[in-house]
Amino acid sequence: MIRKEMIAMLLAGGQGSRLGVLTANVAKPAVAFGGKYRIIDFPLSNCINSGIDTVGVLTQYQPLRLNSHIGIGIPWDLDRNNGGVTVLPPYEKSDSSEWYTGTANAIYQNLSYIESYNPEYVLILSGDHIYKMDYEVMLDFHRENHADVTIAAMPVPMEEASRFGIVITDENRKIQEFEEKPKEPRSNLASMGIYIFTWSVLRDALIAKKEQSNCDFGKHIIPYCHEGGKRLFAYEYNGYWKDVGTLGSYWEANMELVDLIPEFNLYEEYWKIYTKTDNVEPQYVSLDSTIEKSIIGEGSEIFGEVHHSVIGAGVTIGKGTVVRDSIIMKDTQIGDNCTIEKAIIAEDCTIGSGVQMGVGDEKESRLHREIYAFGLVTVGENSCIPSDVKIGKNTAIAGVTEREDYPNGMLDGGEYIIKAGEGK
Question: Which of 217, 251, 261, 321 gets the highest tally of CB atoms within 10 A of its CB?
């Protein structure tokens, strides 16, 4: 086995519960983004664009779609005999069957995979952020400073700093203190959950903390290294970075893609985002249709109006239907004469004709007020909505619904219909 200078470990087991019905049957990194991508495409593309050709992807929650999407890594040029991409689910050991119980525990359970490449450095990544980053530049910074651990960090507004792990550094960016979600932050430099470890340092820390329950990088491994006198540095990143962990931030990040000058550009020649694409026919736009400031996926058929929206592949939008400020994922069929306002509709849904979404006043969700907020209508995958019903804001629908599920043909703002077996 050829020794690798740096390999990446990509944590992609997250349930993404704050995305509600969107992640009832699919891991967050496999959720669609930007009409043709999945969230995990961004860190994977960053790896290959940064010259990293060995990536272990740690899966756990609902891994099926993620596994089939990654496959043997062909779209990212990661189908290699030596290295490439390897999916690493939890597995049964001789004495116990053990789920990954924390970010660091997941890496600890795969020490033998890392050992097999005997790398000098290990890059730890999260599978659920939208950004472009050259990890090679971060590695140069790590080397120049003779660091044991380098944490990618970015400035955040001071009022939001308590939501993050915060680093306090000296003028050379050496970390003096690390605080996990402090109530009163003393710095606004937030950890992005991207780390480069010198391999020997990481291995020792993981072994030392192996008995720690829910062992986590931010809470346990980083403080352990810091207290042990290791050299920790903060690599400051100032580009676009979005944690799409809530329905609001997920919707916002998609909507930013269709701005006139998008803050996050999917079309840069020198830093491409790669994905698995199906061979589908081109989209069809009828003579009567109107499309304005939108992304339209391949194989879609548009007979109505689409304004400021992101439409996935294989979507049909019927005659007289108006879609505005919405995300419609692949293979969803929308009937005629509908009005869809500020909705997120997942894959393989069927929406009858005459449906109105996003009507009325905003009311607090009775299901999960902190999840179903932002004035959105959220529809889980494989859902059916009958014709001629009205759906209010901050609502959630999952499963095959029928006319009688809508009192007087209406799902009021803040209400929900979750059919048995569908997640919340």
Answer: 217
Q: What share of the chain is helix, strand, coil (3-state, %, to 5)?
A: 20, 30, 50
Helix (H) or strand (E) holding 397: strand 395-398
Per-residue b/e over 391-408, b at no fewer than 16 CB within 10 Å? bbbbbbbbbebeeeebee
pLDDT (0 to 100) of residue 390: 97
The amino acid that residue 411 corresponds to is: L
> Which segments of 230-347 are extended strands (E)?
232-236, 241-243, 284-285, 290-292, 295-296, 301-302, 305-307, 310-311, 316-317, 322-324, 327-328, 333-334, 339-341, 343-345
Q: Are 237 and 11 in contact (CB under 8 A)?
A: no
Measure CA 407 to chain center: 35
> Between the CA of residue 354 and those of 300, 309, 320, what are the distances in Å?
20, 19, 9
Backbone φ and ψ for 63, nearest 5 degrees, come out as -85, -5
Helix, strand or coil for residue 349? Answer: coil
Could you tell me the pTM of the whole model? 0.90
- Cross-strand pairs, 37: 33
What's the Cα-to-Cα distance from 203 to each of 52, 114, 207, 218, rounded to whole Å?
A: 20, 9, 6, 16
How far is 49 from 176, CA to CA, in rounded Å? 32
Give the gyration radius of the chain's Cα atoms.
Answer: 23
pLDDT tens, position by position, 313-352: 999 999 999 999 999 999 999 999 999 999 999 999 999 9
Nearest to 232 by CA among 162, 297, 270, 175: 175
- What are the structure tokens assigned to 400, written together? 């095959």
**CB-based contacts of 408, cutoff 8 Å, min separation 6:** none
> Which secondary-structure segment (H or E) carries 46?
helix 41-49
Q: For residue 229, is pLDDT > 60?
A: yes
Helix (H) or strand (E) holding 131: strand 129-131
Residues sharing a CB contact under 8 Å with residue 200, sequence separation 6 or more, in sequence order: none
Q: Which of 178, 283, 185, 262 is nearest to 221 (CA)?
A: 178
Please report, in angstroms and rounded to a whole number, the separation of the first and last CA atoms in the chain.
45
Average pLDDT (395-406) is 96
